[in-house]
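[stage:ingest] chain + small molecule (flavin mononucleotide)
[stage:ingest] validated
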Amino acid sequence: MINDFDAASGLSFFLYRSAARPDIGNGDLTRILSVARSRNKAAGLTGCLHHEDGLFFQWLEGPHAGLRPVIESILRDDRHHDVTVLNEGPLDVRRFEDWQMRFSDRDRKSLMDWFAAQSMSTVDRNEYAGGVVAFLQSIV
Ligand SMILES: Cc1cc2nc3c(=O)[nH]c(=O)nc-3n(C[C@H](O)[C@H](O)[C@H](O)COP(=O)(O)O)c2cc1C
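[stage:predict] done
[stage:export] tokens:
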């Protein structure tokens, strides 16, 4: 879907995994999502965040100019650490166009169980990143 944001500049995406601060609770998650959704809306960003076994997996997409400052904020946020960029680059079509930031956790669907069932490699970097995206897109 082409909207004003997308027409103004090309789309990019950013996919990472990070370790949540050990004492992160539901209150922290609620606050993270509340700020994320309003800021993403203003910047024309969409995506999803998955929390499982102390790890965050996040896919963010939108116009490059809007995406960059949000990524910088996320990278310096002390509510998580060890941010590993799994993939990033240009994007043709939004994958989560209906979501300012969808949230899921293992009660909804488990990434670890999903990987085990797919017999996909979690060692090969490209296959792992592709698996994470496929998993995130499989959550309905
Ligand atoms: C796991 C995680 C995911 C986040 N996702 C987003 C997001 O999608 N969009 C966003 O604006 N902020 C997100 N944040 C919050 C930012 O890190 C930051 O606190 C917020 O954007 C405010 O920016 P500032 O700290 O530079 O003022 C996230 C934080 C964490 C820990």
